[in-house]
Amino acid sequence: MPDDRPLPQDPVWQPELDELAAREALAREMGGAERVARQHAGGRLTVRERIDALLDPGSFHEIGAIAGKAEYDADQRIARFSPANCVFGRGRIDDRPVMVAGDDFTLRGGSADASIKGKPKMSEQMAVRFRLPLIRLIEGSGGGGSVRTIETTGRANLPGGLSDGSSFELCVESLATVPVVALGLGSVAGLGAARLAASHYSVMVKEISAVFVAGPPVVERLGEPRTKQELGGWEIQTGCGAVDHAVATEAEAFAAARRFLSYLPSSIHELPPRVRGWDPADRRDPALASAVPRDKRQPYHMRRIIERVVDRESFFELGTRFGRPIITGLARLDGWPVALLAGDPLYGGGAWTADACQKIIRFVDLAETFHLPVVHLVDCPGFQVGLAAESSAVIRWGVRALTAIDQTTIPWCSVIIRNVYGVGGLGHQPGGRVALRYAWPSASWGSLPLEGGVEAAYRAELDAAADPAAKLAEIEARLNALRSPFRSAEAFWVEEMIDPRETRPLLCAFANLAAPLRTPGPSRFGMRP
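^ that's the sequence the OP posted. Answer follows.
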């Protein structure tokens, strides 16, 4: 029989509940009023303010709030309490569950001296186990070491040793399983910098962030005096590709994180969500018929084409300042998220540099990991040539990019806007499997561009001509007629020539064809940042 007797109204465990509330209040004080004021004076929010600004209001559920280091009086009552410098827990972004972990810089600058190693470790483990996107709010060393740690512990840590506690392997597992966003929100060094880079999308705040393997004091000891911004400011780190994006304020960083996640599934075990807007899938854009100039030496704005073919205002560019001959970003087509890759003729004519190839590799890895179909707007005159290119190992990086593309299994659609030449041109779509391919009338392809190639191939004929310049013009005119894309279409080298104005309807049709082909689950290999 059930016991229907009423329970006592007064809590039996009231003293313990009072102590719990008191300890939670101490944790919310972080490093104390003085250090919080110092954080604000530097133009930076505290970790708790950041979490509140990032997540849906009232959705944060903290884990391990009262973990830290306490001192007790003679009666074993708590006398002093210093909370751990990692704050983490569950929350929601646009009503979708996420994990968030943030460094508290008011407590020993986020270093190991104030850390409870299990907290950042558990945030990674929970994100993977419960298949939740992970956002890292990084400031300081991210729980990494400090020289002072040697004195406080009485020993030096062996990086990667069984007792080290950094657990970088968990970051690797997270990358292969859930979307990971990392925001650099102050000076970020050592392990913190590694955790920032070990993400699918990273953001710095221009005036307050700096990222480096080791900061100015260490570098100065090696004979290189630098300020924080000179050593690891946003222009340095976004320009070299170490960080994806930089914004003016922390609020913009939080908005960028939310938007990036909106294109991705919660984990590799789901598919990216469809979000249909007001932009009709059959929209034809008359301006596309004039987007590419007839003069092949004249560049054009690829981003204007992108904006006209994807769902309005859906293009979210990644890595804008790195590998600039290639544009990468996320977009929607008839509401379906896609990974968009495009050549940019404004930079080196769109020729693939070593940097551009690195950018491509990471981007197609992202698409493969999270089951995003790829749309490639193609303008690639080949790999960059010349001494600078050769000195950057462009052929090695180029072959790696081609391999990454061929290893993908996701649906792929290419629209050849202008150039497809040389070995680099092989990367316009994966080889050996069916992919959709369209070509505009402006398309041009071959083993080599005619410009420069004619002189080599017809040297004897040109040397023998009474007027070499006129002979060169005659040969180029003849070859230009033969390299018409319509000639290739006759032989089914290119499957469809299209009116540029039909590009959006065809791409939206591709996105709908691709939707049922996407299979959730692990990729052939884990994501490499």
